[in-house]
Amino acid sequence: MKNKKALKLQSSFELLVTLSIGLAILLPVVIIAFIQLSNANVSISSIQSQQAASKLVSVATTIGSQGPPAKQLVQIQIPPDVENIYVGNEQNGVGHIIIFVIRASNGPSYITEYTPTNVSGNLGGIINPGTYLVNLTAESVCPSNPSFSCVFMTPVV
Q: Using CA atoms, how far apart are residues 44 and 52, in angstroms rounded to an integer?
């Protein structure tokens, strides 16, 4: 009788040890998979932000070359993890860049597109994921700095 109990106890203990070793091996694999998935999401957000910025630059260049009163609506897709969008410069003044700031695990990542046309505006309010319309208007007197002409960008509410 004692021998049967000892065998059952030994079997249970062996099973517990086997499961523990299996979990110890599996846990790092799961952690690595989650880290890789997080990096993939940041990469996808960066690519989608690059596409949106390129689209804005392309239309801004066209509108800027046409001059006032040219205007156009553009539909852009904002991916997840976008913290901010700067137009012109990092103070949303007149400049030649559009910057998408992407939230990443190792700090913010900046997606920057250059435009030969002066641009300005404030797209910081459209950081939630989704599809948005942006109004681009060629202005002879830029609202953010009257000393310059620019293509002014505003979200359509």
A: 12
